Amino acid sequence: MKKENYKALLPIGVFLVLYLGLGILFEYVLKIEMGFYNIPIVVIFLVALLVACLQNPKLKFDDKLEIMAKGAGDKNIMTMVLIFLTAGIFVGVVGRSSAESVAYCLLSIIPSQFAVLVLFVVSAFVSLAMGTSVGTITLITPIAVAIAGSTGFDVAFCVGSVVGGSMFGDNLSFISDTTIAACNGQGCEMKDKFKENFGIALPAAIVTGVIITIKSLGTDVGAATVPEYNLIQVIPYLLVLLGGIIGMNVFVVLLIGIVTGSVIMLASGAVEATSILGNMGSGASGMFETAMVAILVSAICALIQEYGGFAALLSLIKRTFKGKKGGQLGMGLLVGAMDIATANNTVAIVMANPIAKEIAKEYDISPKKSASILDTFSCVFQGVIPYGAQMLVAVSAATELGANISAFKIMPNLFYPYILLISSLVFIYLIPEKKK
Q: Which of 21, 43, 347, 353 is placed for a possible disulfide with 185 were both Cys, Cβ 3.0 to 4.6 Å?
């Protein structure tokens, strides 16, 4: 164990102050739309890396480069980056048009009284299949606004259900950035993390469904308008979801999804043959920032660990949180604090990963459990902060369609993230662990 050195944590502090400070300035002072997401996060991490390099002058710069290279070249980091890129290609190939088909199919079968419950279930399924909460919200929010207009349900109630459902899938999906980051960072199989996570998320989703149903039954509603739909494009998502659940290698699963998606998209005429490669490239390019963040954070964390920063942080957590259950709560609050500061649950997990791994070793927490806690708590906080991408996209999409809505109107209707937090605490403190 390295000697404790709290000064070694300075690069993290610099990043948080710059990113959070500029985010608040852009979003709330300058009133720039999506202000937090106009800040080049890669540049801010490069500044933090520069600060880390300037620390500890006794260590030669060449030695620091070697430490950074070992951190960035770690097997788990390289695997994470490759999965990010492959998942991006998959999403680029299959597109996102199938989400609307799933929603309209269910709305055509189920009575309008349960339309909001359908929005929650569809958002959960689509985000589980696509691996992106923001993409799901972008697609389903216009449907939620239309449903609110035709049935009479409150817009904030409909949109809040969409945001909640999208966080369910984001938390569990095999191709979600958060799942990839948590599993590779903690060194566990995705199927093991899924099983661990499912026991927390499913009860929360069921309770949320009951609450939505009870609230819906107290509203007088009209008939929902349902346009035409086509379900064939859902097949690649189902194959990826099934492959992940049965434990197939993630690269094989994604390759199956890419091939079947290409065939279906071409055969259905949804895309031209000359465009398919371009779509693959666009999908991979969309993961560039996430991949670069993973590499830069691993380099910064390697230096912080070398300087004794993680030893100091681990010592602080040990003094504050006692026992194995306390260690799990400390891990959850750590990633939650990172998420509040960065407004990005993937970045929060990547930053918390090395510290959480040390906590897991110290408190004898299994990798699948630590990965589950990181992913779950990051999704809880990301799902409710008013300046997160999920909330900003939901408000923007609804406002463009004429809805009078704000983040603070949606927040009381975010039943799922709140219940997921309660479910997580029950999971930590009341559910006995299975014997190894």
A: 353
Secondary structure (H, E, C), the chain? CCCCCHHHHHHHHHHHHHHHHHHHHHHHHCCCCCHHHHCCHHHHHHHHHHHHHHCCCCCCHHHHHHHHHHHHCCHHHHHHHHHHHHHHHHHHHHCCCHHHHHHHHHHHHCCHHHHHHHHHHHHHHHHHHHCCHHHHHHHHHHHHHHHHHHHCCCHHHHHHHHHHHHHHHHHHCCCCHHHHHHHHHHCCCHHHHHHHHHHHHHHHHHHHHHHHHHHHHCCCCCCCCCCCCCCHHHHHHHHHHHHHHCCCCHHHHHHHHHHHHHHHHHHCCCCCHHHHHHHHHHHHHCCHHHHHHHHHHHHHHHHHHHHCHHHHHHHHHHHHCCHHHHHHHHHHHHHHHHHHHHCCHHHHHHHHHHHHHHHHHHHCCCHHHHHHHHHHHHHHHHHHCCCCHHHHHHHHHHHHCCCCCCHHHHHHHCHHHHHHHHHHHHHHHCCCCCCC
> For the whole model, what pTM was predicted?
0.75
pLDDT of the chain, 436 residues: tens digit per residue: 567 888 888 988 888 888 888 888 887 788 887 676 678 888 988 999 999 999 988 889 999 999 999 888 877 778 778 877 887 888 788 766 566 677 777 777 888 888 899 999 989 988 887 777 877 887 788 888 888 888 889 999 999 999 999 999 888 888 787 888 899 889 888 888 988 999 999 999 999 999 999 999 877 777 666 667 667 877 887 887 788 777 777 788 888 888 988 888 888 777 888 888 888 898 888 778 778 887 888 888 889 888 888 788 778 877 888 888 998 998 999 888 878 867 778 878 887 888 888 889 888 899 999 999 999 999 999 888 877 778 878 887 888 788 888 888 898 999 999 999 999 999 998 876 665 5
Task: Give the number of other CB atoms < 10 A from CB of residue 9.
Answer: 18
